[in-house]
Amino acid sequence: MEMRNHGMDPQPALLILVSQAGYPTHAPRIRALGEATSLYLAGPGQLDQLDGLPFFACDATTPVESLLGELQERGFRPDALLQLESLDFYPQGLIGQPLPAFYYATDIHQHIHWQMEYGKLFDALFIPSPHFLEPMRRNGHVAVYAAPEGVDLTLFSNPGLSRDLDLVFVGSTQADQHPLRPVLHTLLRDQGYKIQFSPRADAATRAKLYGRSRVVLHQGEPGIFSATQLEGAACGAVPCTTAFSGLEPELRSEQECITYRDEHDLLHRLESLLGEGPRWHQLSDAAQQRVKQASWGQRSQQMLQNMLPFLRQKRTHFAEADQMKAHAFVYHVRGFGGRGIRMLNTLSNQFPEDVELHLLKALSYLNSNLYLEAARELDTLLTQATPPPTAFVEQIADILLNTFELAGHTAGALHTAQALSLPSDAQKRRLARLLSRTSDPLPPEIMEKLRIPAQTA
User: What InterPro entries does the record point to (predicted)?
Assistant: First the structure.
């Protein structure tokens, strides 16, 4: 495969799959990649350029083959494709297409349950936080790399001004979403620190705030990487973050940042950091040096380096049937259930005994409020020639009961009662209530199992 040559290593020409709505989230990464190699963007939108980069507007599920054909007519022949998660763009035809394919999973801490499935369609995955590397690998993703957010060092830099704030925090302080943040605000204010807590701000505003403060505070979920600390470090503020925040190895605790366990530990560490002595200057200087390795340019080069082995040989890590199930599941989750069901119907013809296919089809129907279709699909699952294992039925019992209740499907309720070896008391009551709607006589063993009196059967 012939690749464009920029510098020492050949770099792939990339087709980047990203929607116009999703572009702002990924703009710094895309611009940095564009400085290293040639790009063409494609996704849902209405423009023909984004920040001066060529953009082909398409539908939310346009097939990859169609995109490649269109770009070839425009004179662009990509070596690989990179999908940047936009939450509104899931092209068809990823399975079996000829190019090495890569996926960047945005906000994996919120979407890991389906991004783990969608990732099965790609040669390799990139995720924003190292914290999630191990969970992805445990689920069969052998090629997954950390690709954290970077820092625009032309914007975030030390202005060399006097620092009139002890500590600054940028982000939401809504108590229902982040209960500890307003507690920290009150505690730090009452301790006499010069602080500023600001809601979400644009990059220029953040840079000004960080350049005025001695400390940039971060408080978030364990393992969730945030570029806030890196931006603050570039401006000369010492990052102060919750322990296990996913910051290492970007910044190392007690060498380029400080970490705290709770609000009391935070006060203790701030007292030590901001007291008399050289410690604040030492950590500030060390953090500024360290963060130079986290520029967007460095991030893009690392991403391209991780792609290179896959450009020499396209790799598939999952069976095609597993990929199709994964793709259909993601279509279900993201609101494209019709396409997912068509894929599952194709698979059902090939693998009629696969119980997962019936379940996925039923979930897709439920997502579209098609309760009767979902009930019929689940009843088919229970009555196929080779019945599903009892343990599997017990695992999905709540789905079965909810669906059959919504659809008023008494046959499904009867088959569920037959399949469950030891239904709970609550399940017995629900099944009995639903079966009371039928005029057909119930088998004696079902009446006994559900404790239905003979006169009410």
Answer: YkvP/CgeB_Glyco_trans-like
